[in-house]
Specification:
The chain is α+β, with helices and mostly antiparallel strands and about 500 residues long. Helix content is about 35%, strand content about 20%. Helix 2 packs parallel to helix 5 and helix 7 crosses helix 11. The radius of gyration is 26 Å and the shape is globular.
């Protein structure tokens, strides 16, 4: 699409200019200040039904807000005002084209507003899709040769050497490398680190691995540097004995998250120091109020790293008092969901058979459970200990939904592996398991990686199926990469299952 949007938007600009877009985006989409957020809360409501969303459009011809669909459409049909701004994502919509449009000058304004919003809230700027700078455009024009990616290309595929029972690590790395948004983040080289910490930074090493995977080379890679960094930062995984792939996955996310946070904090501190030095060179001193504002901003800064953006969801727990029906709700973050495969209590004292599918597992996971007389919980309303029921549901879902099928059972009597076949779909709709039903939201996911464990607890081996391109799957068995069919993937035993939000996928 052209940088000037469409012919209709060109005519709109000639008549109205871009000031309406600038004001509406700053106050009702990005919310660049506390005053903007106050105005949005008070006045950004659908003029037809009074609703605040979940998705509102603003007419750029007049002062009118309307819900997505019938309400904003009615406004267009009645007034013929054809330009609108979708407020959740700040996208321009042309009713004459019946499509979203792109305009480079509006995009520049939007990026400026988003930076102001981030500063106002004392947080880092959220991840944005890569767009080339002027320097990058010049480099692209000077180097017109491109890699031609076809359905049969091997770019992005590399085998991984087994360094001595390290198949658990190899299969997790393959799953991470083939996570679409994580790939885009690292290939755009968006991770920044200070020279002081880069040698020990796991994120820097993963960034290097992405470059290696997509360099076009075909030889297998050695992950000795990655393994050494993991050993240093997750010492319970150190040693050459076989480890649990699930435990390694969670430990890796934890270290990546911590290192992202460290690098973001240090970069922010360096930027603040540079700004302070620049200010010192132009003024005689800093006031007490300036120091206060600076410390407050730093205190309220929160992690918005790529790991949290992709993998973190919110699990809601509702405990219902059986005496007064009072509900106590807590929400906890999660990186994955562990699902039992054995027989289960049906909540009424009886037991059901083992699950046969991922859907069975999720239905059991989110089913209300009676806690019984031996596990009474103090009710905030009754002010006494009462029997209650507990139910789990998904409050928010991450971009990547990962499921851990608990195949390894450990007890004081025996350790065993559950090899029951659990069917899982290539397309998954998580809507039934959400805390709040929302017709506007899209909770559909598609499978992109499956990790399997073959053998016994004592003598087992991990392999991974990953989706290389749309409808093209490969099997990763350490240094050996072979093509696979979707049927082979879905017929596999399944230990860790990785799903990606369809709405954010790339073909």
């Amino acid at each position: 699409m052209a940088d000037v949007g469409c012919a209709h938007f060109v005519s709109y600009i000639k008549e109205y200019g871009l000031e309406s877009y600038n004001v509406v985006h700053a106050y009702f989409s990005a919310c660049v200040s506390k005053e903007a957020r106050r105005r949005k809360a008070l006045s950004c409501l659908c003029h037809k039904c009074g609703s605040s969303g979940p998705q509102l459009y603003s007419c750029l011809h007049c002062i009118y807000f309307g819900c997505k669909g019938a309400h904003i459409n009615e406004h267009y049909k009645h007034t013929k005002h054809f330009m609108a701004l979708e407020l959740s994502y700040g996208m321009l919509y042309c009713y004459q084209c019946r499509d979203f449009i792109y305009h480079s000058e509006c995009q520049t304004m939007a990026e400026r507003h988003l930076r102001r919003e981030a500063r106002s809230l004392g947080k880092s700027l959220s991840w944005r899709p890569w767009s080339p700078s002027k320097l990058e455009i010049e480099l692209l024009l000077k180097n017109p040769k491109r890699r031609h990616v076809t359905a049969l290309t091997s770019i992005g595929l590399r085998g991984l050497l087994n360094l001595g029972s390290t198949c658990f690590m190899n299969c997790i790395v393959q799953a991470l490398i083939h996570t679409p948004l994580l790939r885009d983040y690292f290939l755009a080289e968006l991770h920044e680190c200070t020279s002081k910490t880069s040698a020990k930074c796991l994120v820097c090493e993963v960034s290097r691995l992405f470059q290696e995977f997509y360099s076009g080379a075909r030889g297998p890679l050695s992950l000795h540097r990655l393994l050494h960094l993991i050993w240093n930062h997750a010492r319970h995984l150190a040693g050459y004995e076989q480890q649990d792939a699930h435990e390694f996955f969670i430990a890796t996310l934890d270290v990546l998250h911590r290192h992202c946070k460290i690098s973001m904090t240090e970069l922010a501190a360096n930027a603040a120091a540079a700004a302070a030095a620049a200010a010192a060179s132009t003024t005689t001193g800093t006031t007490a109020s300036d120091k206060s504002k600076s410390s407050q901003s730093h205190a309220h800064a929160q992690c918005n790293c790529i790991i949290d953006q992709i993998f973190t969801g919110g699990l809601q727990s509702d405990v219902v008092c059986q005496a007064c029906n009072g509900v106590s709700t807590t929400i906890d973050p999660f990186w994955d969901i562990s699902l039992d495969l054995g027989e289960s209590s049906n909540g009424q004292g009886g037991y059901g058979g083992p699950p046969k599918s991922l859907i069975d597992c999720l239905e059991r996971f989110t089913r209300a459970e009676h806690l019984g007389s031996s596990a009474k919980i103090k009710c905030n309303t009754c002010k006494s200990y009462q029997e209650s029921t507990k139910q789990l549901s998904m409050r928010t879902l991450p971009i990547v939904a990962s499921f851990h099928l608990k195949r390894f059972e450990h007890s004081s009597l025996i350790d065993k592996k559950i090899s029951t076949f659990i069917s899982f779909p290539s397309e998954l709709d998580m809507t039934p398991f959400m805390s709040q039903k929302n017709d506007m939201a899209d909770f559909r996911y598609s499978l992109y990686a499956v990790i399997n464990h073959v053998g016994t607890l004592d003598a087992g081996h991990y392999t991974a199926y990953v989706r290389h391109q749309k409808d093209i799957w490969v099997k990763c068995d350490d240094h050996i990469i072979t093509t696979a069919t979707l049927k082979q993937v879905l017929d596999s035993e399944g230990y860790l299952l990785f799903y990606h939000k369809k709405i954010l996928e790339y073909e």
